[in-house]
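User: Need the bound-state model for 2-phosphoglycolic acid:
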Amino acid sequence: MNSKKKLIAGNWKMNGGLAANEALLKALVAGLENAACDVVVAVPAPYLAQVQALTAGSVVALAAQDVSQHEAGAYTGETSAAMLKDFGVRFALVGHSERRQYHGETDAVVAEKAQRALAAGITPIVCIGETLQERDAGQTEAVVKRQLAAVIHLNGHCISEVVVAYEPVWAIGTGRTASPEQAQAVHAVLRAQLSAASEKADRIRLLYGGSMNASNAAQLLAQPDIDGGLVGGASLKAPDFLQIIAAAR
Ligand code: PGA
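Assistant: Bound-state model below.
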């Protein structure tokens, strides 16, 4: 068991708009006075400035949903870590399964992105997780270990500077959550792998993601190696997200 603060991160994905963001964040900030955990929102890039202003002075930290693996230059459509930093971004999702699946991001690309984020002083939230096919084929452990191994030794950085999110692909957006036991079993494997790589493994926050909601969060967050959550759909509704945050003590 470790005593670090839990972290709840909302992943808005490609949802929102100026008016909706404002309503959501006002409700969130107003409901957050006594949060016992760290709270993060990962928002679409065009809204970074808006969300930075709306969360200023609150406990809500700003995250990007992705970051370029390149430093700067002729990479049309990309956003660099330095640009994110300009808007007060503290965290960046890296290697979300939707990026791996629809944008062909490999373990090597994910590692480069994590490295870029760290170099700019942004904490990468590295997402890993197996597909249903991989789970059914008994490959869960091998897949998540391979994905984690890719980011475990980043040049000049310690893995303890990273947040890891285990998100079984079959649980994302499907309403089919991993049971607390299934999630804990994978988290224990990841913790052991981290412990073998770093003396500071205990400090690393391991989040669970995949259909986490107001009714299942408490049980998931009670598992010894689950240090927080990466929440998609339920982070778009302030009352639900606040309930999940309240469950993270
Ligand atoms: P979900 O998404 O909570 O809607 O399943 C989680 C994620 O993809 O980060």
